[in-house]
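Input structure tokens:
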């Protein structure tokens, strides 16, 4: 099995809260080839973050199997970009970007050029010594992204990394991700609410059901690489695929809403 292959079989995760048991994932199966850019869409609360957390080793599963084939010992297996950026407020921007490298035991002299490169890539060179409180939400999200890339894991787990950005910055960062990924061929599992974003980025789009989540549809994305995230939207196939994904997702979003309403009635 190649490093970065993801294999999830019949995964179950249930949370115990004061309101009782919440089945987040039930019978989720997903196989992702090493080097694939895989996008997941699904209704809010269907267990997308839970799936990424299990893969990152942050959340135990109740049953089933979730596995990422590790790279060699020198390279981290998985890195996560969190829904809220996940930066540390007490570190500067540069320290945040270099954090993962520091955790890997990489010396400051070796870290510095990598951090500089990634700060340039996300356009925040001038903010290297600023603290997160001085940055906008979009800038913080870019710092989270740079940190994940600098860490250089075999698999990047990305949880709605661009959701907080304005439309122009989102497009720019989509391009940054595409250029980077086209060059390094790592596996990326990218969670998004945007069908258009999933189509612009992904080799494949996986649609999740309403909670408890499982994969209910897999759509192959035929667009050529290298891709231009902005230009794609005028491709006639874009609209057809969008409609195909939305027709599956629409029913699930409605189901999730009904379930929420029923729970609120209890
Ligand atoms: N620590 C927890 N304790 C109790 N319930 C939890 C916990 N974490 C998640 N849940 C519940 O599990 C379900 C799945 O949550 P999760 O965060 O994985 O959804 P999501 O698909 O990422 O949603 P969103 O699209 O809104 O980010 C939700 O109903 C959530 O309330
Ligand atoms: Mg989430």
């Amino acid at each position: 099995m190649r490093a970065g292959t993801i294999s999830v079989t019949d995964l179950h995760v249930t949370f115990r809260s004061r309101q009782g048991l919440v089945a987040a994932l039930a019978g989720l199966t997903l196989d992702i080839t090493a080097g694939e850019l895989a996008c997941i869409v699904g209704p809010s609360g269907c267990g997308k973050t839970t799936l990424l957390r299990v893969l990152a080793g942050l959340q135990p599963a109740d049953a089933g199997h979730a596995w990422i084939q590790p790279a060699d010992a020198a390279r981290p297996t998985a890195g996560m970009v969190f829904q809220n950026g996940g930066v540390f407020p007490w570190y500067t921007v540069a320290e945040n970007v270099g954090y993962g490298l520091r955790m890997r035991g990489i010396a400051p002299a070796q870290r510095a050029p990598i951090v500089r490169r990634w700060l340039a890539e996300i356009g925040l060179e001038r903010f290297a010594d600023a603290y997160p409180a001085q940055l906008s939400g979009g800038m913080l999200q870019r710092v989270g992204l740079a940190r994940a890339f600098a860490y250089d894991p075999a698999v990047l787990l990305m949880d709605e990394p661009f959701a907080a950005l304005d439309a122009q910055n989102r497009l720019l960062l989509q391009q940054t991700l595409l250029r980077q990924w086209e060059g390094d061929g790592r596996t990326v599992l990218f969670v998004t609410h945007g069908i258009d974003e999933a189509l612009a980025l992904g080799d494949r789009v996986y649609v999740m059901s309403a909670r408890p989540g499982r994969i209910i549809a897999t759509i192959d994305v035929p667009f050529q690489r290298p891709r231009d995230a902005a230009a794609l939207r005028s491709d006639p196939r874009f609209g057809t695929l969008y409609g195909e994904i939305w027709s599956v997702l629409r029913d699930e979003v409605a189901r999730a809403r009904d379930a929420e309403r029923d729970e609120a009635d209890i």
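Helices lie at 48-55, 93-97, 99-103, 108-121, 137-151, 167-184, 195-201, 236-265. The beta strands are 6-17, 20-32, 37-41, 63-68, 78-81, 155-159, 187-191, 204-208, 215-220.
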